[in-house]
From TrEMBL, chain A:
InterPro entries: Permease_MalE. The lineage of its organism: Bacteria, Pseudomonadati, Bacteroidota, Sphingobacteriia, Sphingobacteriales. It comes from Mucilaginibacter pankratovii. The chain crosses the membrane at residues 47-68, 138-157, 194-217, 237-257. This is ABC transporter permease. Keywords: Membrane, Transmembrane, Transmembrane helix.
UniProtKB/TrEMBL annotation, chain B:
InterPro entries: AAA+_ATPase (IPR003593), ABC_transporter-like_ATP-bd (IPR003439), ABC_transporter-like_CS (IPR017871), P-loop_NTPase (IPR027417). This is ATP-binding cassette domain-containing protein. Gene3D superfamilies: P-loop containing nucleotide triphosphate hydrolases. Keywords: ATP-binding, Nucleotide-binding, Transport. Pfam families: ABC_tran. GO terms for molecular function: ATP binding. It comes from Mucilaginibacter pankratovii.
Amino acid sequence: MAEQAIPGYKKWMESVGEQGVFFSRFFRNIFTGGFEWSEFVRQCYEIGYKSFMLVGLTSFIMGLVLILQLRPSMVDMGAESMLPKTLAVSFIREMGPVITAIICAGKIASGIGAELGSMKVTEQIDAMEVSGANPMQYLVVTRILATSIMVPILALMGDVIGLYGGFLALNFTDEISFSLYFHKCISSLEFIDFLPAFVKTIFFGFAIGFVGCYKGFHSNKGTESVGLAANSAVVTASLWIFVIDAFAVQVTSILFYR
Amino acid sequence: MEEQVKHNGEQKHNLNEVVVDIEHISKAFGSKEVLKDISLKLKRGENVVVLGKSGQGKSVTIQCIVGLLNPDEGTVKVFGDLVADMNETELKALRTKVGFLFQSGALYDSMTVRENLEFPLTRVLKMKDKAEIDQRVEEVLEGVGLLDAIDKIPSDLSGGMRKRVGLARTMIVKPEIMLYDEPTTGLDPITSREISELILNMQKKYKTSSIIITHDMECAKITGDRVVIMNDGKYIAEGSFDELQNSGDELVRSFFNTTT
C-alpha cells in the first residue's frame, strides 16, 4: 500500500515542480522579448467578448432565481424591504465573481487546454519552438494576461446584469421602481464590498488561464490527451477558484471586518 | 584545392566542413533503449538519408540535434558547438540556422498559409517591411508550386500540400541545415516522388545540408548522397544507395527487399 503511494506522491511533487518552472517561464516572458500585442487583443476578444452572452445570461438567471427563492422567507420575517440589499451584498461579494469564474473555467480553461493540447499533439508547439520563435510568449503569456484582465471585466458586467435580473423578479410581485431598487442596492454597498471581490476575480482569471495553458502545454502526444487536457483544465481551474475564494474571504475578514 | 559553396549567395563555405557531429549518443525512454551508441557526421552541402523501420529511434536522433531532446550519453555538436551546453539564447540562435520539417507539416491551423509563412519572418528574423515580407512569402510559395493557396487555411489543404507549405515555412528563413522527419509518409507514390524531388530542388536552390529520416526507399534514392541504415537503435550500414542495395550483408539487403 505504502509502495503504491510513493509513485503517486512523486508524480504530484513532479507536477508541482513543473508548474513552478512553467510559472517562472511565464513571468520571465512577460518582460523579455517583444510582447505579442495583436495576439493578446485577439485573445481578449475571444475570451471576453465571446463569453459575454453566456456570463450575462447565467448572471441574469441567478439574480432572478435568488430573489424568487429568498422572497418567501423574507416576507415571513417581514423583511422584504431588505431583499435588494441582501441580493446586492451576496451578489457583489460572492455570487457574481464565483459564478462568472466557474462559467469561464468551463468555457475558457477547457478551450485553452484543448487548443494547446491539440497544438502539442500535431507538433505545432514543437514546430514553433524549433523555428526559433517563442511559444511561451505567443501562446501562453497572451492567454494568461487576457484571462486575468477579461474575467474581472466579465464579473463586473455579470454583477450588473444579475442585479437587473433581481429587479425584474422583484417587480413581478412587488411594485418597485427601477431607481428605488438600484438606490437600495447601491446604498447598502460600501467600497470595501467591491474591492476584495474585484481583486479576487483577477486571481480567478489568472488561475483559469494558467491552468488551461499548463494542461494544454503538458498534454501527452495522442488524441485522447486533448480531451484529458481539456477535462483536467476545467476540474483543476474550478478547484483553484474555490481555494482562492476561501483564501480571499479569510484575508478580507482579517483585514476589513475585524 | 578545397571545394567551396556559397550559402544563399552570401558567404563561401568549405564543403568538407562537418556541420553536424553526433558522437556515441544513447537515449532511453523509461526502460526502452531507443538509441544505442549512435554516431553520424553531416558535411556541408550533403544529403544524408537515415533509413529504417518505424519506431527505431530515427526521429529521436534529429530531435537531439535541435535540442528538443537531450541524449542520455554522448555529444551532439552543430557548427562545432555542443548543443547540451547551449543556453536559451544560443539554442534560439542555432534554431534559426536549422530547419525542421515535421512529419505532419505542423502548420499552425488557426492561421492562413500566408500567416504561417509570415510567422518566422516577423518573429524570428524580426522583419518589419510588409512589401519585403510579401515578396519573400510569394517567392518561396512559388518555389513549392502553391502560390494559389496563399490565403487558404491548413484544413483546406491536402496532405501533400501541407507538406509543401511546411517545407516553404521552414525554407523561408533560409536555414543552413534541414532536418526532414518522414517527409513522404502518408502520401501517394506520385506525391511522394514530387516531394522528394522538391527536397532535392530546394537543397540545390538554398545550398542546405540535410538529414532525411525516412522509410521510403524511393525518397532515399532520389534525395540521398549517402544512406545510413538504422536497425534496433543502431546504425548497421552506411554508403551510397546502390552500394547498400547490392551489399553482401544479408540483413542490409533484406532490409531493401522488405521496404521496397
